């Protein structure tokens, strides 16, 4: 007596998310490219500052990594020369040759998986839509690496 049936619309989230770029899922449905929101000077400034910061950090981390690798190699050479360690060079050569063969095998089938290809396509579309921001970032990155 008086039972009301509710009807619901089914939303297929898999299809819904396939049609929306990741940045729109995160920020808002009305967020578009930066070219739609900011003028050229602002885009260059944002890109340049973020690029410079990234380049500066890459430079510092790169120097630290190079120092650590070089220092480690130097210590291993000293330990080998003084007799603390003994290197089996035939085993090293065999392992290097095996690694070369594996690299040749993997590089011969130079096909990207569909997931990687779709992400690469998304990045290319983003870069094309935000070419001024990307240019500012690239310039700032090079300046950050040089400073």
UniProtKB/TrEMBL annotation:
Q: State the name under which the record lists this protein.
A: FUN14 domain-containing protein 2
One Pfam annotation reads FUN14
Q: What does this protein do?
A: Binds directly and specifically 1,2-Diacyl-sn-glycero-3-phospho-(1'-myo-inositol-3',4',5'-bisphosphate) (PIP3) leading to the recruitment of PIP3 to mitochondria and may play a role in the regulation of the platelet activation via AKT/GSK3B/cGMP signaling pathways. May act as transcription factor that regulates SREBP1 (isoform SREBP-1C) expression in order to modulate triglyceride (TG) homeostasis in hepatocytes.
Q: Which UniProt keywords apply?
A: Membrane, Mitochondrion, Mitochondrion outer membrane, Nucleus, Phosphoprotein, Transcription, Transcription regulation, Transmembrane, Transmembrane helix
Q: Which GO terms describe its biological process?
A: autophagy of mitochondrion
Q: Where in the cell is it found?
A: Mitochondrion outer membrane; Nucleus
* Similarity section: Belongs to the FUN14 family.
Q: What does the record say about its membrane topology?
A: Multi-pass membrane protein
Q: Name one GO cellular component term.
A: nucleus
